[in-house]
Amino acid sequence: MNTILEPLLTPDQVQLTDADRRAAISKLESAVRQAALTPAQASDRQDRVLAARTRGELRRILAGVADAAPPRGLTTALRVATGVWLVTCVVQFVVWASLAMFGHFDSPWWLWSDLGLGAVVAMLWWTNESYHRKSDVLVTQ
Fold first, then answer.
1. Could you tell me which of 73, 86, 72 has the C-alpha nearest to residue 117?
2. Mean pLDDT value across the chain
3. Average pLDDT of 1-6?
């Protein structure tokens, strides 16, 4: 269960994969082509990317490169929404189970809000992960 919740509750502590590193290096190369970074700056950051262990470190390395890492607000929203969703799921299930124990068994009404909040968490997770999957940066002028 920890491997499921870790990317949702602590997205900056997720271990980097080789795919994450390749995508980050590709973003740095794209930033050089678009003159957002000098080759020397990109080379220094590439060395740091190869030594990085977590996505939080990667965020600091890619700072200043537009659209290369998820914004801090997005990861905060992901953490908050996940926490609210988990607490809501547990509280509603306990209330439902308690009512069922006392003879008030009803259909699992708690699923409606759990699925709705789960959809919000899924959208935030997908958006956060999309920053790590794409391999180039967008330049807005």
1. 86
2. 86
3. 70
Work out the end-to-end distance of the chain between its first and last CA atoms, rounded to an integer number of angstroms: 44
- Reduced to 3 states (helix: H, G, I; strand: E, B; else coil), residue 88 is helix
Q: How far apart are CA 21 and CA 24, in angstroms?
A: 5
Write out the chain in H/E/C secondary structure: CHHHHHHHHCHHHCECCHHHHHHHHHHHHHHHHCCCCCHHHHHHHHHHHHHCCEHHHHHHHCCCCCCCCCCHHHHHHHHHHHHHHHHHHHHHHHHHHHHHHCCCCCCCCHHHHHHHHHHHHHHHHHHHHHHHHCCCCCCCC
What pLDDT does 141 receive? 44
Neighbours of 109 (CB within 10 A): 12
Higher model confidence: residue 2 or residue 86?
Answer: 86
Which burial class, exposed, middle or buried, applies to 27 when counting CB atoms under 10 A from its CB (0-12, 13-18, 19+)?
A: buried
pTM for this model (two decimals): 0.76
